[in-house]
Amino acid sequence: MIRTAIVILNWNGIGFLKKFLGTVVQYSCAPDTIVYIADNGSADGSSEWVSENFKEVKLIRFDENHGFAGGYNSAIDKIDAEYVVLLNSDIEVTAGWLQPLVTFMDENRDAAACQPKILSFHRKEYFEHAGAAGGFIDMYGYPFCRGRILTTTEKDEGQYDDQADIFWSSGACMMVRSEAWKKCGGFDDAFFAHMEEIDLCWRFNKSGFRTVFIPSSTVYHIGGGSLKYDSPFKTFLNFRNSLFMLYKNLPEEKLFSTLFKRKILDGLAAFMFLIHGRFSHFGAVLKSHVSYYSSKGELKRKREMVKKLGKDHTSGLILNKSIVFEFYIKGIKTYNRLMNGKAI
């Protein structure tokens, strides 16, 4: 068994590999660390380019695109390491980025996962949307971060330079303990992409593990490398996977009421897409609910499996209010202002 495996899932991302892989290898070089490229059936010559230019990087090849969730599940099944870093191909790492994560995990056996500070590659003084300084959810399952509330990202002025327990770690760059990954079942393949890391971290939580933000490690993320932010398919995945996640993980006493209110909010979102002429996104929301209802049988089975992991240990990590209301009605657009309120 090796200590740390850095796994970059690639799908037709040769441009990102040419831009960032060299830095990953340079700043992650250690006798107990191996960099892997897990190729999701690319057709752009990615695998061949890696083989020719980086002999020290190990390749795992798949014949087809299994998505983010399925691709990582399949790759990690083939790797024997104490820790696995899931790293997006469109991330620039920095000197010394890896050691703080490893040191933290070594010293905190109750932690299942941790993430670095994730800043924007194009606006390096600002947090990046996908993870920022650690993730949370509100009472209806909407994600937000320290440093990012819905569409607004904050400038990094050191306001989140404290190590903190978080609800979820960004799949853009997260270190996971293999023991916890296996115990909790890894990603849910049905998600394909988006929200799968939040669903997994919820299961970590139920199993008594912590997820933690480590400010002494920094990376820069382009974002939207596989699916653009305005993609209707991204809209479909986010809405559908939120319903999947809530149904699987909510405690019994909150299941019906929370899902009922979430569906109303989704209906309002669909209406807003419609009146703004974004018809493909309106259709994506409708399609997401159809997919949710057609998956209820499988979701019930998964919910029973999740129950066996234990009860939530989410005190202070789930916001007891609607982030949509706080953002759009009250105009609260920073994490510190938001958290002047109470969490559960």
Describe what you observe in this structure.
- The protein is an alpha/beta fold and 344 residues long.
- It has 2 domains: 2-221, Alpha-Beta Complex (Spore Coat Polysaccharide Biosynthesis Protein SpsA, Chain A), CATH 3.90.550; 232-313.
- Helix content is 41%, strand content 22%.
- The protein is built from 12 helices and 14 strands.
- The protein has helices at residues 14-27, 46-53, 67-77, 99-107, 178-184, 196-206, 232-249, 252-275, 279-294, 296-307, 323-328, 335-338, and strands at 2-10, 33-40, 58-62, 81-88, 91-93, 111-120, 135-138, 143-145, 148-149, 152-153, 164-166, 173-177, 210-221, 318-319.
- Helix 6 (196-206) packs parallel to helix 7 (232-249), helix 7 packs parallel to helix 9 (279-294) and helix 7 (232-249) packs across helix 10 (296-307).
- The chain is globular, with a radius of gyration of 19 Å.
- The chain starts with a strand and ends in a 6-residue tail after the last helix.
- The model has no long low-confidence stretch (mean pLDDT 94).
Q: Keywords for this structure?
A:
single chain; 9-stranded mixed β-sheet; Spore Coat Polysaccharide Biosynthesis Protein SpsA, Chain A; alpha/beta; 12 helices; 344 residues
Could you write a compact summary of the structure shown?
This protein is an alpha/beta fold. It is 41% helix and 22% strand.
